[in-house]
Amino acid sequence: MFHYFSVRIGRLLITLFLVLSFAFVILRMSGDPALIIMSPDAPPEAIEAFRKAWGLDAPLWQQYVGYLVNLIQGNFGVSMKDGAPAMQTVLERIPATLAITVPALILQLLIGVPAGVYAALHHNSRIDRFLMGFSIAGHTCPSFVLALLLVMMFSVSLGWLPTGGYGSIQHALLPILTLSLGGAAVLARFTRSAMVEVMGQPYIRAALSKGLSWRQVVFHHALPNAAIPTVTLIGMMVGGLIAGAVVVESVFSWPGEGRLLVTSVASRDLSVVQAILLVVAACMVVANLVVDALYVILDPRLRAGHRGAQA
Predict the structure, then answer these.
(1) Which of 97, 115, 292, 307 sits CB 3.0–4.6 Å from 188 for a disulfide?
(2) Closest to 251 measured CA to CA, from 241, 242, 262, 240
C-alpha cells in the first residue's frame, strides 16, 4: 500500500513541476510585461528600468533558477500591478471560487449519477433516449452559451435572479447551474455506459439466479463495480470545473480565481498567474490522489494485490 501511494505521489510531484516549468516559459514568451503595464508613451529608459527592477532583463535560464529558488523558500513573488504578495492575492479569491465550484460538483453528482443509473436500468426505453438526448445537448453546449441562456431565462424573462455580481445566494445560483449542468450531462452518459456494461456481466445473472432481489443486485453488485470507472471521470471533472470557472466567473462578474486569471494574463502579471497555476495544479494533483485512494477502496483486487505483493 505504501509503495502504491509513494509511486503516485512521486508522479504527481513530477507533473506539478512540469506544469510550473512549462507555464514559466510560455508566460515569458507570450509578451513583455513592461510594454503592457507601463504606459505606451513611457520613455525607453523607464521601460528598461522596469525590466531591470523585476529581473526581466536577465537570461531566461537565470530567471527560471531564481524562480525555483524563491519557490523552495516559500516566496511566490509579488504582483507587478500593485506590489501585493502574489499568493496572498490568489488565496483571497479561493473562497469565492469554492462557493460555486463545490456546490456545482455536488449538483453534478446528484443529477448525473441517478440519471445515468436510471437510464441504464431502462435501457433503450423512451426515458433512456430522452435522458441521453438531453445529456448530449448539455455536453455540446458551450458554457458561455449556457450562461447566456440561463441569464435570458431567469434574469431577463422571469426576473428571478440577478444577471451577475457577488454577495448573496441569488448571485451564486446562475454560476452554479452553469457549471453543473454540462458536467452532470457528461456524468450521466458515462454512468449509463458503465452500468449497461456491468449489468450484462455473468456475475449479475448469477446473482439474480440465486434469488437475490433486483434492488440487491443493483445496489450491492452493479453500482460498486460501475463506480470504479466513474470515479476516474469525477477526478477529471474537478479540472473541468476549474477551467469552466474561468469563463463563468467572467460572464457573471464573479470575483474568483478564474476572473483573476483572465485579468492577470491580460496584464502579464507574471507572479500572480504563476501563483494561480500553482494552486490549480495542486488541486488537480490532490484530486488525482483522492481518485487513486478511492480505487483501492472500491476495487478489492487492488487491496488483494497489495497484500500479495507485501507477502
Answers:
(1) 115
(2) 262
Is 60 exceeded by the pLDDT of residue 310? no
Which of 229, 227, 225 has the alpha carbon at shortest distance from 202?
225
Q: What is the mean pLDDT of residues 269-280?
A: 86
Closest CA to 169 of 97, 99, 246: 99
| pLDDT class of 309 with cuts at 50, 70, 90 | very low
Tell how far CA 248 is from the center of its chain: 13
pLDDT tens-digit map of 139-178: 777 788 888 888 888 888 888 888 887 878 888 899 999 8
In which region does residue 212 sit, left (phi positive, over 0), alpha (psi from -120 to 50) or beta (all else)?
beta
Angstrom distances, CA of residue 269 to CA of 58, 81, 84, 246, 286: 17, 7, 11, 17, 26
- pLDDT digit string (tens) for 102-142? 999 899 889 888 888 888 888 888 888 888 888 888 777 77
pLDDT confidence of residue 82: 79
Structural domains of the chain, ranges and CATH numbers in brackets: 2-72 (no CATH), 86-310 (1.10.3720.10)
Q: What sign results for the dihedral spanned by CA atoms 228, 240, 253, 90?
A: positive
Find, among 274, 288, 267, the residue nearest to 15 by Cα. Answer: 288
Cα separation, 240 vs 159, in Å, equals 29
DSSP bridge pairs for 85: 78
Cell numbers found for residue 226: 460501475
Which cell numbers in the block locate residue 55?
Answer: 529581473
Apex 54 CA angle, 52 and 58, nearest 5: 55
Cell numbers linked to 148:
447566456
Cβ-contact 64, 24 below 8 angstroms: yes
User: Which residue bears the cell 455580481?
Assistant: 165
Distance CA 162, CA 290 (A): 36
